[in-house]
Write a structure and sequence with these properties.
The chain has 186 residues and is mainly α. Helices cover 87% and strands 0% of the residues. Helix 5 crosses helix 6. The chain is rod-shaped, with a radius of gyration of 36 Å.
């Protein structure tokens, strides 16, 4: 940003020196400002600004520092006009998707940290224990899609070799106990 201002001030100074010739009077701030703005509105001024913005060194020089970005975002979010702008942006599906993608890994890390936090866990348990949430879970369990998924999951579980072995072992153990009881009663 400082380079842009320096560039513009140099342009105005050169313009003044070339245009004024032998005059000693300096133009006022308002005159300088008007000349700079007029210069920027010309095709040459616009082209010069585009060329400057294409220059990597210049672009790196005008990158805003973190405190400036923070201050700008806070000021933008707290004004009524800024809040209206953000609401409009968030209603744009493309913008929302891009924003979500850029924040996805950070949000995932934050959620994982929060899930390990005992205070957060306690709040989640309190929410899950509320009668309203329990009723929602019961209503969900009564739905046909939930029951179909549950049937599918149980079927897949029962088809696994490990489950079959555990079931067989449990049946054999139960039969042995029943046989021992009947031998003891005889």
């Amino acid at each position: 940003m400082a380079k842009i201002l320096s560039f513009l001030m140099c342009a105005v100074l050169l313009f003044n020196l070339a245009g004024c010739g032998g005059q000693q009077s300096q133009p006022s701030y308002e005159e300088n400002k008007k000349m700079v703005l007029d210069l920027l509105k010309t095709d040459d001024g616009k082209k010069a600004m585009r060329d400057l913005l294409k220059d990597n060194e210049f672009r790196q020089a005008i990158v805003l520092d973190e405190p400036t970005i923070h201050k700008t975002i806070v000021q933008t979010l707290t004004t009524e006009q800024g809040q209206k702008l953000w609401r409009q942006l968030m209603n744009d599906p493309d913008f929302s998707e891009q924003l979500a993608k850029t924040m996805e890994s950070d949000n995932e890390k934050l959620l994982k940290r929060m899930m390990k936090d005992p205070g957060y866990q306690g709040m989640m348990m309190d929410i899950l224990k509320t009668p309203e949430m329990q009723q929602q879970y019961l209503d969900l369990m009564k739905t046909k899609p939930f029951r179909q998924q549950l049937d599918k999951s149980i079927g897949e579980l029962m088809a696994t070799p490990l489950f079959k072995k555990q079931l067989t072992d449990a049946i054999v153990e139960t039969l042995k106990k029943e046989q021992e009881k009947s031998e003891d009663n005889s």
